[in-house]
Structure formats: C-alpha cells, structure tokens
Design brief:
By secondary structure, this protein is α/β, with parallel strands linked by helices. Helices cover 29% and strands 20% of the residues. The protein has 10 helices and 16 strands. A hairpin with a 4-residue loop joins strand 2 and strand 3. The radius of gyration is 20 Å and the shape is globular. The structure holds threonylcarbamoyladenylate (TXA) and magnesium ion. The site of magnesium ion has 4 residues, from loops.
C-alpha cells in the first residue's frame, strides 16, 4: 500500500472518506499525531493494531467531535465529575475512562468494562472527526513502543506503506500525550499525566486525584501503555536526579563517552561547555517548550545513531510531571540519584 500525504483543508473530505470506508488515516492532534480508524467498526480498528504491531491487550481512545457523543458510549447517566471535566477541558488534552456501553466493540476496550474518550482541540482533528460523523479510534501514530510522532515525517518514518494516508498539519503544539483520568471507580485515578495538569484537574474536581501506583494493587495494570519501558528511543536513556551542581557534573562525565548526547536545559548550556554533543530542549522553567521538543529529540537521536541519551529530571509540577513521566519510562524506570 502506498501511504498518501494529504493536506487540509483541500483533502479533508478525502481523509474522511477513507476513514468512513474503513481505512487508516494519521492526523494531527494538539498532543501528538493519532492513527485514526472508524471507532465502532471492529474490522477497521483491527487494522490499527496490525499497522502499529500493537498488542490487543492495549485499549484505544475514542476521539469525539462533540461532548454529546459520549452518551452513546457510556451507560446513562454520565458521572457528574465527568460532566464537569468535559465542560471545563474539552476540547483538549484530557482522556476520560468511563464505564462502556454495548455499542463499543471489544477490540477498542481490550475486552475490558471501560472505554477511554477524548475530544481533541486541534482544529484539523475536530473537523476531520466531524466530517466522519462518528467516533474515531486513534492511538498515537507510531510503531508500538517507539516515541509518539509529533510531525507527519515521524508518522511516515514508522508507518509508511502500512496506512492509507497522513494528514499533514505541521508539528503538534503540546508534544506529549493527553492526560488519562479513570473515572470508572469510586475515586478519580490518574493513569497517565499529560497535557492537562494534575493541579488543574484537582482544582476542577475540588479534591485530590489518586495516583495509579497508590490506587491499590487490586486493580490490574490497565495497559502496556502504562508499562515502565515505553515511549522510548532505541538509545539507552541515562536519567539523573539530585542537586543541580552534582547532576551537571555526573551528566558531563557520562556524556563524554562516544555515542552519547546530552539533552540540556537552556540555562545550563554555559556550564556544559566541552561536552561533545548537547541539544537544547528549552529553559527548565518552561516545561511546555521542553515537552514540545522531547519526542523529536528522541527520534533525531535514533536517526543519528546515538547510543546513549543523558538527561535529568525536570523540577516543578504542572506539565513537568508529564515530561518526567516520559523520561522515566524512556529510562526503563531507572533514575540515577546523585548526592
Ligand atoms: O494524546 C493522546 O492521547 C494521543 C492522541 C492521538 O489523541 N493518543 C494516545 O493514544 O496517546 P495511545 O493509544 O497511544 O495511548 C492511550 C493510552 C494507553 O496507555 C492505553 O492503554 C490507555 O490510554 N487506555 C485506553 N483505553 C483505556 C481504558 N479503557 N482503560 C485504561 N486505559 C486505557
Ligand atoms: Mg501510544
């Protein structure tokens, strides 16, 4: 199959027609590129798993054109915290896990009792989904376990020849995936930090959101997307944490060895002179910029044959939590603490 490169607005009808016919179209969202298929059509959704080489145990997010579409996908009444969060954060980078209705095929939910839904804020994504007129299942448009794509070129790198088309909308503004919040139980559980911060959720809910790790061991691990090694470059990731001078010293030393590249915060650049390969991800006080550049830096490292990426955890809350989560997973959960 030849993968076509489509542009908006000229090719939006074409893209919608491919989806309605059961085909696969990658499209930009405000977080990362998604690989879309008709969400209530099992055969179309099966093609997503095949193209990505994704295990069927990992459920997909249904992307909606209007909040009202939720009522078809979850039994009435929609839980009131969900209503409040939808009103506050949709369209936007917040995915809600809700009890599923019978309309949702098993292949979307991995056979589980819940369904994940979100209404994306990217105008091209919204317009596409509305023209399809039905929920669009869309995981990130990468091969399983590779970093999510933030550009149409990244999608083609992984999926060229495996999908019908890519809708090119330029780089995605947020750069890390949506926040996944499970509202199917008694308390809201944060399954994946992302574009909507924990602080914003707690303010809107008027109470705490529980961490996945703290939610109790009775809950089965919901998905491989939540496994430690994920969102990873092929390069080994050496992730450091600790007081700044000591972290910089340790990073500088590890980054001297051949095949290494250091991912730096902008304000540290003068202190890293002499390190052979340094990439500036942005100021540490500006996690939005760092998030937007992170996956591209992972993919560039792989293209350049880098064997080890050297990086440190990001201070602060907000979007830094999502960045630290992706860094930790890319490092297979290993954080090197220096004193
Ligand atoms: O920002 C995003 O969410 C992007 C864009 C394309 O919308 N999509 C995305 O999809 O990241 P994906 O499939 O790469 O990640 C979805 C995550 C996975 O970790 C999956 O296991 C989890 O959401 N998930 C999906 N359905 C779930 C469910 N019913 N219960 C728990 N976790 C679920
Ligand atoms: Mg993914």
């Amino acid at each position: 199959m030849e993968t076509r490169l489509l542009r908006a607005p000229a090719d939006l009808d074409e893209a919608a027609a491919i989806l309605r016919a059961g085909g696969l179209v990658a499209f930009p969202t405000e977080t990362v590129y998604g690989l879309g298929a008709l969400g209530l059509d099992s055969e179309a959704v099966e093609r997503v798993f095949a193209a990505k080489e994704r295990p069927h145990s990992d459920p997909l997010i249904l992307h909606l054109g209007e909040p009202g579409w939720v009522s078809d996908l979850t039994p009435a009444p929609v839980p009131s915290p969900a209503e409040a969060l939808m009103a506050r954060f949709w369209p936007g980078p917040l995915t809600l896990v809700l009890p599923r209705s019978r309309r949702v095929p098993d292949v979307v939910t991995a056979g589980g009792p819940t369904v994940a839904v979100r209404m994306p804020a990217h105008p091209m994504a919204l317009e596409l989904i509305r023209r399809v007129g039905a929920p669009v299942a869309a995981p990130s448009a990468n091969l399983f376990s590779r970093p999510s794509p933030t550009r149409a070129e990244d999608v083609l790198e992984d999926l060229s020849g495996r999908i019908d088309a890519v809708l090119d909308g330029g780089p995605t503004p947020i750069g890390v995936e949506s926040t996944v919040l499970d509202l199917s139980g008694r308390e809201p559980v944060l399954l994946r930090p992302g574009g909507v911060t924990r602080e914003a959720l707690e303010a809107a809910l008027g109470g705490p959101v529980v961490d996945r790790r703290a939610a109790g061991t009775s809950r089965p691990l919901p998905s491989p997307g939540l496994l430690e090694r994920h969102y990873s470059p092929r390069a080994e990731v050496a992730l450091f944490d600790g007081p700044r001078p000591q972290v910089l010293e340790a990073m500088r030393s590890v980054a001297q060895s051949p095949g290494s590249r250091l991912l730096a915060w902008e304000e540290d650049l003068p202190l890293l002179e002499g390190v052979p390969e340094v990439v500036n991800l942005g100021r540490s006080g500006d996690p939005a910029t760092i998030a937007a550049r992170l996956y591209r830096a992972f993919r560039e490292a792989d293209r350049d044959g880098v064997r080890r990426l050297v990086v440190s955890t990001l201070p602060g809350g907000g979007l830094a939590e999502a960045v630290n989560d992706r860094l930790r997973r890319a490092a297979s959960g290993v954080v090197r603490r220096v004193e």
